[in-house]
Every structure is written in C-alpha cells, then in structure tokens.
Amino acid sequence: MTSNAVLTITDLCTEFETDNGQVRVLDGVTFHVPKGKTVGIVGESGCGKSVTAMSIMGLLPKPFGNIVEGRIDYAHQGKIDDLASLTPDKMYQMRGNAISMIFQDPMTALNPVHTIGKQLMEVYQLHQPELKKKQRYQLSLEMLEKVGIPSATQRMLEFPHQLSGGMRQRVMIAIALACKPDVLICDEPTTALDVTVQAQILDLMTSLQQETGMSIIFITHDLGVVAEICDQVVVMYAGKVVEQADVFELFDHPSHPYTQGLLASMPNSQSIPKAILPTIEGAVPNLNEMPVGCRFASRCPYQQDKCLQQAPILELKNAEHQVSCHFWSDLRAKGNGQEPAV
Ligand SMILES: Nc1ncnc2c1ncn2[C@@H]1O[C@H](COP(=O)(O)OP(=O)(O)O)[C@@H](O)[C@H]1O
Ligand SMILES: [Mg+2]
C-alpha cells in the first residue's frame, strides 16, 4: 500500500449474476487514492465506473452483485481495513463516517416525503447520537450555509421537489459532508446540471476539500472537468484500468491508444463544432464474450498479433504513470516524440 494512500484498490473483480449467467464487470481494477487529493475516473458509459464506486461503498445490489476477488484497503487512524471483506454491519458504519457518496441524480438519494432539515438532522443523529436536537439543528443549518444555500432556515422546512436541481445537488453534498468523510465519491454529480451551476458546484467541492483535507474520487465522462479539478486520473475500458497518471502527465503524454482517442475527441475550443471532432470507431466488446487479448484491440489502430493473443498488464512507465498496452513505447517512438493521434 502506498504510504500516503487513504484507499488502495488492488485487483478488484466484481461480478453480476444475470439471465445470461455470471458476468465479470470489473476485472482486476487497481488504483490508489492519495490523502487529500482528487482522483478522476473516466471512460465510456458501461466501462464500470459506477460499479467501482458501488463496490467501494459496499452498495452492490444484493444478492446479484458481488466482489469476487481483490482488496479495498482503507487506511485510517493508523490501521488498515479491507472494505471488500467487512461485514455488512461494519460497512454500514463506514458509510457516512468514513466514506460518503453523491450521485448523479439527487432525487434518487433524497427522500421526497421528508423535509431537507429532517434528512440532514437524521444524518447527525445516526453518526453523532450524543448531540441534542438543538445542536443537530444548528449543525444542519450551518452545513446548508456552507454549501451555499441561501435562506437556509427556510430551506430546512422545504421538501426536495421545492428546490432547483442545483440546490438539490448542494443538499446532497451537505448530507454527504455532514459527517466529515475521509473519502467522498462523486458519481457524475454535475452531469444533470447546467454549465454555470456545474462550475459553482465544482468550486464548492474544491474549497470544501481544502478546508477538510478529504480525498475525492470524481467519476465523470467530461475530460474538461478532470483537467480542472483532478490531481490524478484513472482511465477505464471494459472493466479494466488501461492507464493511470498524474493529470498533467496524462494530458501531456497519453500513452494508451484509448486515452489518446479520448483526448483527441475532446473539444479544445468552443469554436470547433462537435460534429467534426474525431471519435473512436467501433464498440466495446460484450461482457459475455471478452477477448483473451487486449480488450481495446478490435478498435485500436495499432493492433498487432500479440494484442489478440495476450492481455497486457498495467506497467509502470514512470513513477507517476502506468499503462496497459503491449506497444506504448513503440507508439511514442513512431510519432517522433509526438503522440500519435488516434
Ligand atoms: N445490476 C446489474 N446487473 C447486471 N449488470 C450490471 C448491473 N449494474 C451494472 N451492470 C453492468 O456493469 C457494467 C458497468 O456498468 P457501470 O459501472 O454502471 O458503467 P459506467 O461506467 O457507465 O458507470 C455495464 O456493462 C452494466 O451493464
Ligand atoms: Mg455510471
């Protein structure tokens, strides 16, 4: 386990029982989250970002979703707990106290029949039962103010449907932060919001992080957001990590052809119409028919025989950069030092 890591995820394999049999949705996912830093997880829809979050949170749908291999080591108070093997009771205590999560759609997580105040006060009651009702009320009010909700006294009395999308997301953040988690997992928390509100929420999260020193796992498909707020980036493809690096290193030297494709399809300027941006051709392989070799091979412009025969493993390119491609060093050489455009 890396010494400054609060979470170290090693060879995590998660499977679902489906009508088509057992499918392996995460296959050997490995990365770590340094203390006080933000780690972005990116990749196309269906690559396993949310399942990674659910596995860490112990919130896989039971009995169908299960971690079948691997560890999720959580370092706290001088000891290490493997979240993958905690009992449901212990995991319940971890959620909120140690690790909180905010979701893309706050309506799925907020209770429509309870006021904002009641829901927030409940969190304090659960995690700090010694507090008096008046103290819980006061803390809830302060937390709403902290996340930038105006007229907080009035909002305490309102129901989720009375708030705008941006305000609901702030309430979710307030609830997630109420117990001062060590790790906050954000699963596409700003996707449903308009750009201005999105920017406000991102600013808010960065300043709360500076204040509390928490670590953040930020799941998104928006590389612009990654560039703005993440320290490190994990790129996932078809249930595997294909590349991970410091954010500057990743944007300057993307080394997996898939990452290169993702970056190439990113709009650099508002003036480029989306329609003419390059996209990565082809489709992700079916979970039931994963190839033995590299999972990206069928879409990779640099595919060679070895890619079809043997799965690459995550290799250390340098201390800040790991990549899972047989030919990453050749690809760089070919481009005369320049990254090839996929
Ligand atoms: N409850 C479930 N049962 C079966 N398969 C699931 C379930 N939830 C997710 N999956 C599958 O797991 C894969 C990863 O999903 P997910 O983590 O939600 O992707 P994303 O990267 O878009 O968040 C997808 O192929 C999805 O179909
Ligand atoms: Mg998702």
Automatic annotation (TrEMBL):
Instruction: List its EC numbers.
Output: 7.4.2.9
Which segments constitute the ABC transporter domain? 7-263
Please give the InterPro entries that the UniProt record associates with this protein.
Answer: AAA+_ATPase, ABC_Ni/Peptide_Import, ABC_transporter-like_ATP-bd, ABC_transporter-like_CS, Oligopep_ABC_C, P-loop_NTPase
What general EC class does the enzyme of this chain belong to? Answer: translocase
Q: How does it sit in the membrane?
A: Peripheral membrane protein
Where is the protein found, in the record's own terms?
Answer: Cell inner membrane
Q: What is its main location?
A: membrane
- The superkingdom listed in its UniProt entry is Bacteria
The chemistry this enzyme catalyses reads: a dipeptide(out) + ATP + H2O = a dipeptide(in) + ADP + phosphate + H(+)
The UniProt keywords, alphabetically, are: ATP-binding, Cell membrane, Membrane, Nucleotide-binding, Transport
A molecular function annotated in GO for this UniProt entry is: ATP binding
Query: To which protein family does this belong?
Result: Belongs to the ABC transporter superfamily.
Q: What is this protein called?
A: ABC-type dipeptide transporter
Record organism: Vibrio rumoiensis
